[in-house]
Each structure stands twice: as C-alpha cells, then as structure tokens.
Specification:
Helices cover 52% and strands 0% of the residues. It is mainly alpha-helical. It has one domain. Helix 2 packs parallel to helix 8.
Length: 276
Amino acid sequence: MAHETHLKNNKYRQWVKAGLGLRYLQEGLAPFCDDIGKQQHNDIINKIQQTKTPQPNVPCGACQITTLQPDHVPVSKGICPLLQKNCNCCFPKKTKRCPNNICGAIYDSIIQYHASTPPAPFWRNSDSQQWSTDPWSVCKCFINVPGCKDKTSAVDTELIGLLNVIINNKYFHNHFGCNVTGPNNLFSKVRQYRNDILHSTSMELEESKANTYIEDMIAVLQDGKEIVHRQDAQQAVLKLQELKKKDFVITSESKDEMSENVAAEEEHEELKVLNV
C-alpha cells in the first residue's frame, strides 16, 4: 500500500521525526512561558499601582484597544514618543482614558517591552479588556502572527506563538542565558526550522539535518540560566533525545501526533494569508 512505502522511506521518517520534535519542544517551553508571563504581568501591575496617582483599580474590563487612550502623549502631531506606528496616542479625539487608571499604563508597558524596532505589538491577538487580570492576554500582544486570540494560556498556544513571545518580548530575554536577538540566534533558527518542516512539499528530510534541528531544540530547553532546571522542560529533552536514536520507528501513534501538530501549526499559516 502507498502509505507503507512512505513509512519505509527514511527521508520521510526523518521529516516525521523532526515534526515530532516541534511537538516536544512546545511541551517543554509552554509551562515556562506561562510562568514567565505571570511574572511579567505581576511586575507590570505592581509597578503601575506603586507609581500612579490616583491608585489604579484592578480589575478593569472596560477598555477596548481601538478606543483606549495610552498614558503617554505624542511629542508632536502624529509622532509617538515610544516610536510605535499608528499609535493610539496620535488620535486623542478618538480615544478615552481608562476609567480605572490602569489599561493605558499596561498599553505603554507592552510597547516598551516589545523588542522590534519600531515596536509593533500585534494588538489583534489580544483582548485589552482582560489585560488587568490575565497574563497571557498581555503575552499574546508579542505574537506577530494571527490566530491566537482564543488561546487562553501558553499550553494551548502553538510553538510558533511561543517562539514569537520569547523573541519579541524583552522581559523574556532576561530569563535566558543565550542571546535571543543577535544574528543567527538559537530561537530564530528554531523558528525557521519549524517553517522549513511544515512547508516541505516533499515531506522529506535528510537524517543529518533532522538531527541538527533536534539538537538545537534540545539546546533551547537546556539553556543554562533557568529552563534547564525545570523538570517539565527536561522531560521534553528526554523525548527529543529518544528521537535521535538510530532505532527510531514510526508508529501509527507517532504519525498521528505529527499530523495533529502540522494541522495546528498550519492553521496559523492559513489565518496569516487571510489577514494579509
């Protein structure tokens, strides 16, 4: 049968192996991203409450991103001091201040933490009405691909989303020992691996390349600053190391895992095309 021929093809087996690697990397990164997102949210809220007068009220739940007035003001007509293009600060007549004195400051914090130049939060992924209480709603502003608005945590966010949060959020940079944004940084390389694997029309991969992909996925989870000390991340490392063994065999279960992973990640690609 045709599928049996595919399963015997070593290059196809290596492609499946690399795809499962993406699945295990997501499993290892997600709890860490959730925890760092909660830390960031707590720091943002605490700082706002300590520095703002009058004392902000939490929760808010009243502010829409399209009409929210930031705390900062333009330096001149149409020029945002935080360098964000088309910032809400440039349209004061169309926006209104947060009634609880909190959401405008969170808006500013998101821009200030964004690592791109100029900063470019992806507001459409997030619900600003949840910013004051939900850490992942803030993190989703750093995912610059569509399709994450309904994701409630890192655990149900696809790998491309987690990698974007890490790369685009300066707060996360402080929790890794490696350079997250430099040339050929590990996270951007792994993000490109993900694209190469999912966009492969042949669904084939050389064994040496598959192993290189997996070695770099392992390196992400063994970063020496924090994540290397987490049990959930190191359990994912053990799964990745198993994939590299010469006797790796594709079972119907592993093939189904790969298919589920591809389907979930490809949903982002379809949404990205629709939102161009």
